[in-house]
Write a structure and sequence with these properties.
alpha+beta, 4 strands, 18% helix
């Protein structure tokens, strides 16, 4: 699955990115029991992000391999009125589907969102020295005096 230019532009807007040059996902699907479809996704994306330090755009590559499970919506606990706790799951992500339609494009978009660095940093970017976090001590002035007298 290769996202076209219009889809990439829409996703860039959705995720607050200046641009997405490439978004490709390869799904390998396997039928399990009771309508559950196991999927292995290999994703590659080339995105433009804004550096949190310099506020400059830079290109980044996102590569992910993940395991997903598409589960019939009526079989999930919240379909029965039970509150669903995602932390209780030990396996791959479970994605509900209805009417025998798997939303592979949406699954790819969600995995891209999860793969993005929430605090992107341009390679080589550093904070200016005045923001390095080390505060000058008021006693530094006294250290420079050789005679030890204070005026």
């Amino acid at each position: 699955m290769l996202a076209d230019a219009a889809t990439r532009a829409e996703l860039a807007t959705r995720f607050g990115l200046p641009g997405i040059a490439l978004l490709r996902g390869v799904f390998v699907l396997r039928h399990e029991r009771a309508g559950v479809i196991a999927a292995r996704l290999s994703m590659v994306a080339e995105v433009t992000q804004i550096c949190v330090l310099t506020l400059e755009p830079f290109d980044a590559r996102v590569e992910e391999v993940c395991e997903l499970r598409f589960v019939p919506a009526q079989s999930l606990p919240e379909a029965e009125g039970v509150e669903f706790d995602p932390e209780s799951l030990e396996g791959p992500d479970e994605i509900p589907y209805m009417a025998d339609l798997l939303e592979l494009g949406e699954a790819l978009a969600e995995q891209l969102a999860l793969g993005l660095d929430p605090y992107p940093r341009k390679p080589g970017a550093a904070l200016p020295e005045e923001f390095s976090g080390e505060r000058a001590s008021p006693f530094d002035v006294l250290k420079g005096r050789k005679d030890g007298s204070v005026s």
